Automatic annotation (TrEMBL), chain B:
Gene3D superfamilies: 3.40.47.10. It comes from the Bacteria. Pfam families: Thiolase_C_1 (PF22691). It comes from Tectimicrobiota bacterium. PANTHER family: ACETYL-COA C-ACETYLTRANSFERASE, NON-SPECIFIC LIPID-TRANSFER PROTEIN-LIKE 2. Residues 271-382 form the Thiolase C-terminal domain. InterPro entries: Thiolase, Thiolase-like, Thiolase_C_2. GO terms for molecular function: acetyl-CoA C-acyltransferase activity. This is Thiolase C-terminal domain-containing protein. The lineage of its organism: Bacteria, Pseudomonadati, Nitrospinota/Tectimicrobiota group, Candidatus Tectimicrobiota.
């Protein structure tokens, strides 16, 4: 089984805004940091103006361990965007982090055949620099599958 | 029960030609559908005094040009030059079903007498869904860099989770695609009217975004549909038998913009919309004689059947088997062919078919002895938009 070839893919580059800048600043340092409510402790992603759990506006960013499980996934076979054509078929996954239930992160499953994407499989974060400013959190299979 | 049940009715429906791509500007398609609906009701255009639409272009990364890629209320006003226009709205939430519900409210409030609602859909040249350009802004900054390009993948990840959580097989969806195509083969307005589809066609078709194959996706088309709403009293004086609106509901289900893949919201969005509809009408899922449930992607039908209460969570793919959704089954479903077979016109065609079935006007597709006709006009994973039409006011 072959791996998806990401070497020819040009990814759209994220543009941080006032809500999301701390996430990207942390990622650049190799740290996964999520928005957390100081009032009720709820983690959420993507960042938002208020806590979606208790409507508090007292929000901060906190580092979280980069381990979690695949919550959902899709295998892309259709080259809708030609920039991703070389990687087809590839796995786009949604990850639920152990430390932040309900906060869902998108990613690709790297360093493994796309057929390894399954709901519930253990993954860990890896960081992929896109340019000097932006580093993308990505995921690969965790060494010890629960 | 709702005090306004059966006080507004659908009295006319209309269709444009449905083509794969643009053969005329979209405004011409919309005009064709609106004229046909007004004629079907037996009215003159000058009688129309209310206009409503939801004008969104679902294709991403394309230029919006009014009259070419969307048909706004302003565009329709300019074409029709209605002498008695007294109310209009262009909604921005809850899809085209929301425009129909606003028109119902306007008729109940007495601020217009005959309202037209249309949905016009453009199929742009080139790729339908484009990822952002060099940079990904807003919610897309967390999805586009990973190759998430449009609603297809967002819906696909949710469907994968549903399948694996409930130990289900995607192959069972062939029944939905094939049954809907058989209905479409009796609907001369459908894009696939003359094209059969077999179970083998479905099982052998190419994968687009696993678990969705080609026939799990509605085909993008250029076209428009329209309906005329009026008060029940006026509807009884018109030639077509009225389809009375017994109840409706709506409920957005996006938790946070840009978040994808969650299945926690579809039961909430669909069930809160349908609960309002059941309570307002006084009916239950067991009372329903025929149902139209939005199927932009096939999996939306699953979420609809479960969240509206027709079956339990995780059971919908089994529920649709064994002839249950066929014409003589317990719940004939998407009897016009659904978006999978008519082409992508969003939910207004579902609403139109619901009304036609209630008024006994569905021609070769008419289900026997229909009184209660249910419509889920949007994907409950995004929003619930539900209606019940009845043949007999009560």
């Amino acid at each position: 089984m072959t791996l998806s070839d990401w070497s020819q893919v040009t990814r759209p580059i994220p543009v941080p805004n006032e809500w999301t800048k701390p996430f990207w600043d942390a990622a650049k340092q190799g740290v996964l940091a999520l928005q957390r409510c100081r009032s009720c402790g709820h983690f959420q992603h993507p960042p938002y103006a208020t806590c979606v759990n208790c409507i508090s506006v007292d929000l901060t960013f906190e580092p979280v361990p980069g381990t979690g499980t695949i919550y959902a996934y899709s295998i892309m076979y259709h080259a809708g965007d030609k920039r991703f054509a070389a990687a087809i078929p590839y796995a786009s996954i949604i990850v639920e982090l152990d430390a932040a239930p309900g906060a869902l992160l998108a990613g690709n499953l790297l360093d493994a055949p796309y057929t390894e994407a399954k709901v519930g499989r253990r993954v860990e974060v890896v960081f992929q620099a896109l340019n000097e400013d932006i580093t993308l959190p990505q995921f690969r299979l965790a060494p010890n599958q629960a | 029960m709702w005090e306004n049940r059966c006080k507004v009715a659908v009295s006319g429906v209309g269709f444009s030609t449905i083509t794969r791509s643009a053969e005329m500007p979209l405004a011409a398609y919309a005009l064709q559908a609106v004229k046909a609906a007004v004629a079907d009701a037996g009215l003159d255009m000058a009688d129309i005094d209310g206009l409503a639409t939801y004008a969104e272009l679902p294709a991403t990364g394309h230029t919006i040009v009014d009259g070419i890629s969307i048909v706004s209320v302003n565009c329709m006003m300019a074409m029709l030059k209605l002498p008695n226009l007294s109310w209009h709205v262009q909604v921005d939430t809850v899809n085209i079903g929301g425009a129909v519900q606003q028109a119902v409210n306007a008729l109940l409030a007495g601020v217009c007498t005959y309202a037209v609602v249309w949905r016009a859909m453009h199929n742009p040249r080139g790729t339908y869904q484009n990822l952002p350009g060099t940079y990904a802004q807003g919610p897309a900054q967390f999805t586009a860099p990973y190759g998430f390009g449009g609603p297809g993948q967002g819906m696909a990840v949710a469907y994968t989770r549903w399948l694996e959580r409930h130990n289900q097989k995607r192959e069972k969806m062939a029944t939905l695609a094939v049954t809907q195509r058989q209905y479409a083969n009796k609907n001369p307005h459908a894009y696939f009217y003359k094209t059969p589809l077999t179970r083998e066609d479905y099982l052998n078709s190419r994968m687009v975004a696993y678990p969705f194959c080609l026939y799990d996706c509605d085909i993008p088309v250029q076209g428009a549909v329209a309906l005329v709403l009026t008060t029940a009293e006026r509807a009884r004086d018109l030639k077509p038998r009225p389809a009375y609106i017994a109840g409706y509901g709506q409920r957005l289900a996006f938790e946070v913009a840009g978040r994808i893949g969650s299945l926690s919201s579809y039961m909430a969005g669909g069930s809160s919309s349908s609960r309002l509809t059941w309570e307002r009408s006084g009916f239950t899922p067991q009372d329903v004689d025929v149902a139209q449930i939005y199927d932009g992607f096939s999996a939306s039908v699953i979420y609809g059947l479960e969240s509206y209460g027709f079956c339990k969570e995780g059971e919908a793919l089994d529920f649709i088997q064994d002839g249950r959704i066929e014409p003589d089954g317990a719940l004939p479903l998407n009897t016009f062919g659904g978006s999978l077979s008519t082409g992508r016109i969003h939910g207004l065609w579902h609403i139109i078919e619901g009304a036609l079935q209630a008024s006994g006007r569905a021609e070769d597709r008419q289900i026997k002895d229909v009184n209660v006709s249910f419509v889920g006009a949007s994907a409950p994973i995004v929003q619930g938009t539900t209606f019940i039409f009845v043949r007999e006011p009560y």
